[in-house]
Amino acid sequence: MPTAIYQKYRPRVWAELADQNHIKTTLEHEISRGQITHAYLFVGPRGVGKTTAARLLAKSVNCQNRKPGVAEPCNECEVCGRIQAGRSFDIIEIDAASHTGVDHVREHILESAEVSAGHGTYRIFIIDEVHMLSTAAFNAMLKILEEPPAHVIFILATTEVHKVPATIISRCQRFNFKKIPADAIRQRLRSITQAEKMNVDEEVLNVIAEHSDGSLRDAESMLGQVLALGGKKITMLEASLVIPRSNLNEAANLVGLILKNDAAGALSLANNLVEQGISVSVFMQDIIVWLRNMLLAKVGERLDLFSRDTLGELQSRLLKDAVGVSAREAQELIDIFLRRRQNLGESPLPQLPLELAIIEACTLKADGMES
Ligand SMILES: [Zn+2]
């Protein structure tokens, strides 16, 4: 059960697709009006729903029961059933990053694009990590895209669009997928735990949401590990066995001490954490994330947009703490931690770069930066 959370709760209809509303709206509109194009390009970070959207699109256009003016697939007809189970002959999924990907595209696509799909349905090629294809494979695809057979649809997905030839991009309708806000991820995790009838502390879901960096897939697989722990109620204590401990709170504490110019307090906090076995690298990253959020809080207007990686109490703390720091100060502090973090690998003592960064940051503060 637990490892399969991601597959088990893969959205079956558009309404279940997490976030990405701009994409949903456009695609639903095109599907319901029958204005399908021959090539789509889904761009965006990993785990944000590109493949899921591709499969939904494939299911919607091929669903036997779908009526004009409706975008959602019925999920009851034979075609829907086959696609849901990953057993449709008309949906060809290719992972271009895999060893066989390149040859696959050339032979598979060139040949099977000529063969028409069954029952007046579309033959749909979903090519994941399409930027990994060889020039030869791209050329083969380009040939088809120039004069696409009526029954063929390409859905190309990539995390690195700059590696996709411009000639391909220009023939596709492009959709930019975004990282999913922590709050949307948390809601999704909550609905899964309810469906699984598991009692998981809100704090656990918050930490997973914050740590997944906008990737729903990562969040769901982390949740799967947490649920595998079993038990009546899963608290942070149990969950900390499998999920990385959030240090954003500690990072916020440390930044607070630096802003008070309390070098001794900051160093002692850092040493306590090191003794508890935290990763210095991850912690310095947390500090940088916290400072970045502060900086954005100083210059940004849309608080909800930039602070969406932080939730609840942490978010109100961020907004409160940001009042006491100037944008320039936040920027210089980020520079210090970024620079010192680069020395982590060559430092004889793992915590030394962190300590030096703290001292440097406090010196900066003492040298009379306005706050
Ligand atoms: Zn159907």
Automatic annotation (TrEMBL):
GO molecular function annotations of the record: ATP binding; DNA binding; DNA-directed DNA polymerase activity; metal ion binding
Entries under InterPro entries matching the protein: AAA+_ATPase (IPR003593), DNA_pol3_clamp-load_cplx_C (IPR008921), DNA_pol_III_gamma-3 (IPR022754), DNA_pol_III_sug/sutau_N (IPR012763), DNA_Rep/Repair_Clamp_Loader (IPR050238), HLD_clamp_pol_III_gamma_tau (IPR045085), P-loop_NTPase (IPR027417)
Catalytic activity: DNA(n) + a 2'-deoxyribonucleoside 5'-triphosphate = DNA(n+1) + diphosphate
Keywords linked to the UniProt accession: ATP-binding, DNA replication, DNA-directed DNA polymerase, Metal-binding, Nucleotide-binding, Nucleotidyltransferase, Transferase, Zinc
GO-annotated cellular components: DNA polymerase III complex
Residue intervals of the AAA+ ATPase domain: 36-181
Bilayer-spanning residue ranges: none
Enzyme class: transferase
GO biological process, one term: DNA-templated DNA replication
Gene3D superfamilies, per database record: 1.10.8.60, 1.20.272.10, P-loop containing nucleotide triphosphate hydrolases
Top-level taxonomic group: Bacteria
UniProt-listed Enzyme Commission number(s): 2.7.7.7
Pfam families assigned to the protein according to its UniProt record, in alphabetical order: DNA_pol3_delta2, DNA_pol3_gamma3, DNAX_ATPase_lid
Similarity section: Belongs to the DnaX/STICHEL family.
Self-association state and partner proteins as the record states: DNA polymerase III contains a core (composed of alpha, epsilon and theta chains) that associates with a tau subunit. This core dimerizes to form the POLIII' complex. PolIII' associates with the gamma complex (composed of gamma, delta, delta', psi and chi chains) and with the beta chain to form the complete DNA polymerase III complex.
Function summary: DNA polymerase III is a complex, multichain enzyme responsible for most of the replicative synthesis in bacteria. This DNA polymerase also exhibits 3' to 5' exonuclease activity.
Record-given protein name: DNA polymerase III subunit gamma/tau
Organism: Candidatus Uhrbacteria bacterium RIFCSPLOWO2_01_FULL_47_25
Gene: dnaX
